[in-house]
Each structure stands twice: as C-alpha cells, then as structure tokens.
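Exercise 7.
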Amino acid sequence: MTAQPFLDELAWRGLLYQYTEGARGMLATGGITADCGFDPSARSLHAGNLVPVMGLAHLQRAGHRPIILVGGGTGMIGDPSGKASERSLNSLEVVEENSRAIKHQLERFLDFTGPRAALMVNNADWLMRLGAIEFMRDVGKHFTVNYMIAKESVKSRLDSGISYTEFSYMLLQAYDYLELHRREGVKLQIGGSDQWGNITAGVELIRRTLGAEAHALTLPLVTTASG
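Solution. The predicted structure, written as tokens, is:
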C-alpha cells in the first residue's frame, strides 16, 4: 500500500483536520516514523482519545511506523490546550501509575511486532533529566514570546490567566518532537486539532536546530452537540 492513501483514508473517514505543506509528499516517499502523545492525567483514556489512536492504526496499516509517546514528564505540568483554567498538578507517583495503565490500553490497538512494530516511549526519560539552564539556552532561545502568545492554546487563556508552568508546555512538547526526531527519526507528529500550535512549534524547533524537515498532522476533536 502506498503512503498517499493514508491521508485519503483519514479524509474519507472524517478524521483529517489539517496538515503541514509537504506532508503528503513526505509520506509518499515510503515508510516514515510518526508519533502521537497521550496525557497520563487519568488512569484511562477517554472516548476522544480513540480518534488519534485510530489515526495511528491507519498510519501503521499504510506501511508506516507509529510511536506512542506517554507524557510522563509533561504530565507533571499539564497541557493548557482546550482548558479554561489551571490544571491541578499530579505527583510523580500518580503520573507513573497512570502511564502504565494507558500503555496497557494502547497495546490492544496497535501491532507491537514485525517490521513496522509500534513503539511506546515515555518523555520522562529525557525531560526529568533536563536542566533549566539547558532548556532555556537550547530551546527557549528559538521562540519569541510573541510567537507563543499567538498560539491558540495560550491566547485563549490570556484574559483568565495562565501560569508560567503551563505557558512553557508548548516548548516542552516541541522538545519532545526534537528528541524523538533524534532518537527514532520521527518526521511526523499527530494530535488533536487543539495541538496544532504545540506540534508546529516542534516542527519549527527541528528546522531551526537541525535544519531538518518535519511535519504536523491533526485530527478533529470529539465534541458535544454544542461544540
């Protein structure tokens, strides 16, 4: 199966929201590695998570390799995307317990054997060892405050208030993308439509630090009748 039908399959199923220019061409070159992150703020995934999970399943069926990124590190902070107020911070023990439970659930949807075997990683493996000075020097210097507040996940919270902790989440996710690009050759990051700003920040970080090509793809959110 060629790579092009992957995007067509998503579109036909109503699972394609947006993607960066050049993503279709990159997918058509052959099997690529893509990742999608899951937030371990609870012990179980929810109905809305089924959309990106199926996105990864269709990606694997189209001949590509999926990586599941469990946010054991970023889960210590919490993603402000789609949230009207500050999240409660979980302890390291709670995040680790939730991560193990989520891993068990995801293993039922993806093939973890064979040449395109899915891989599960935890960003706590690199984020928990990342120093503040190192992070500000190697990541923060590549982004202006104007760039960050223009992203919807931050802009929507400016009136009600957002802590520096959640404000910095975008850069942590961007660093995840850079780290996975280095470690596993990830060239595509997938997420819900509310993740566009976070994912494209990673695309930008990879371009600026490595001069390499990377892409973003988002899927629609599951919403109520009121949106």
